[in-house]
Design a protein that fits this description.
- Helices cover 15% and strands 36% of the residues.
- It is of the alpha+beta class.
- The protein is rod-shaped.
Length: 440
């Protein structure tokens, strides 16, 4: 039996050395998980199930268990290099066949899909249309749409301006408003607004303090024209009328309690008509420039103040923008793939999903940094990064192999000694048999 014991020891030591060698070979493989050879002792069995001998029959390899501990995270220069800090696996699809991986070295293919080195597509939640909300459903191939972001017409404007209460009043009867004459208004500022094709227009504001206490008029003009075609809720070409409380807050707008003005607008027809009449250069016809008006759903002037301090612009906000081209990508810790566009806008294009398993050691390794679900692993539990037991995503980084080279080299020395010792048991048994054979 000593021969059998020694032989089993040689076999298990050799297999353990294979495991150690594979670990060392993959020390630089991104997302690799080290394996450990686990052994069991062997006893001879009788028909009744009890041991026929109290002496064991050697050892056998019970399993090779992978160790799904966290690897070190190293920064890279690619925003599509993703590292999982915590639990979970990336879901990858090859023509519908799902596999799972910890290797986050991704790139875009020629069609715009996020793929790995094996041309498998990364899975995640995607919006139904560009700029739409991402609603968790069945994971799909993550696609980065390269098309231009369409423009957004200005529909909301908000203004935060302080009007100096110490300013001298201007009598509109004797000194009527003229945008070209700074003596006819107290202060001014401007901002860009956008029509339905994304063409920018400069909307200018002119503030006039009237002789009436705590009353101001707000005129508007577009693209350097006279104050025509601007509606602040008081009708086209008419200024908005604001009054203030003794505390400096807006009291009324156009004679009603302060509230955002709704359904205001810019009439571009009048703007282009005046430009064609006064500017001696070709001006695009209205049909090539957008809709006849830019409708404002809300025009919020309730944040204006009248304090005894110099005129100052605190905020000028509007929600319009021109069209934009995709300029870059970023991925958040929650797995949101965000596109950055040349018009300064950003959009959530997809959200990476992660899968976790009740028994990760039940996964079968397919090579190529891929694992496959089995009955032993249990079904994949799918969620977004940061939910449940899923880890978070770190962009422009990769997870290194969790191989401890020092430990592996020490294990190699130990296994070498074990192999030598088992060989000596066989040699010793052979010497004993030789002695018996030589008895006379």
């Amino acid at each position: 039996m000593s021969f059998q014991q020694g032989l089993s020891g040689l076999n298990t030591s050799a297999k353990a050395l294979d495991v150690v060698g594979n670990n060392i070979a993959n020390a630089n493989t991104v997302g690799f998980k080290t394996a450990r050879a686990e052994f069991a002792d062997v006893f001879a069995k009788s028909l009744s199930g009890s041991g026929a001998s109290p002496v064991g029959a050697g050892a056998a390899l019970a399993t090779v268990a992978q160790q799904f501990t966290q690897g070190n995270i190293t920064s890279t220069n690619s925003p599509l290099d993703l590292a999982i800090n915590g639990g979970g696996f990336y879901m990858m699809s090859a023509n519908g066949a799902l596999t799972y991986s910890r290797n986050g070295q991704f790139q875009l293919d020629k069609e715009g899909f996020v793929i790995d080195a094996g041309q498998r597509r990364l899975q995640g939640y995607v919006p139904q249309d560009l700029g739409g909300p991402i609603v968790p459903s069945s994971p799909e191939d993550i696609f980065v749409d390269p098309s231009d972001l369409p423009p957004n017409i200005t529909s909301e404007i908000s203004m935060g301006v302080n009007l100096d209460s110490r300013s001298a009043p201007i009598d509109g009867l004797t000194n009527p408003f003229d945008r070209n004459n700074p003596l006819t208004y107290t202060a001014s500022t401007s901002q860009s607004v956008f029509d339905s094709l994304g063409n920018p227009h400069v909307l200018s504001y002119y503030f006039v303090k009237t002789p009436t206490a705590a009353e101001w008029l707000v005129y508007g003009s577009v693209d350097g024209t006279s104050p025509a075609g601007v509606d602040f809720g008081a009708g086209f070409n008419a200024p908005a009328n604001l009054t203030f409380t003794t505390g400096g807050a807006v009291a009324t707008i156009n004679g009603v309690p302060a509230a955002p003005v709704v359904n205001a607008a810019i009439d571009l027809t009048q703007v282009f008509t005046e430009l064609n009449a006064t500017v001696p250069i070709p001006v695009p016809a209205l049909v090539n420039s957008a809709a006849a008006t830019i409708p404002f759903a809300t025009f919020d002037m309730t944040s204006l103040t009248q304090f005894g301090s110099p005129f100052g612009v605190n905020a000028l906000n509007q929600n319009g923008y021109s069209s934009g081209r995709l300029a870059g990508l970023s991925v958040s810790s929650e797995g949101l793939v965000q596109g950055r566009y040349t018009n300064g806008q950003s959009r959530d294009l997809a959200q990476v999903t992660l899968a976790r398993f009740t028994n990760p050691n039940g996964l079968v390794s397919l090579g190529g940094n891929q694992w496959q679900e089995t009955d032993d692993s249990g079904q994949a539990l799918i969620g977004v990064p940061g939910s449940g037991s899923n880890g978070l995503i770190k962009s422009a980084a990769v997870e290194e192999a969790n191989v401890d080279l020092t430990a592996e080299l020490v294990a190699m020395i130990t296994l070498q000694r074990s192999y030598q010792a088992n060989a000596h048991t066989i040699k010793t048994q052979d010497s004993i048999l030789q002695t018996l054979v030589n008895l006379r």
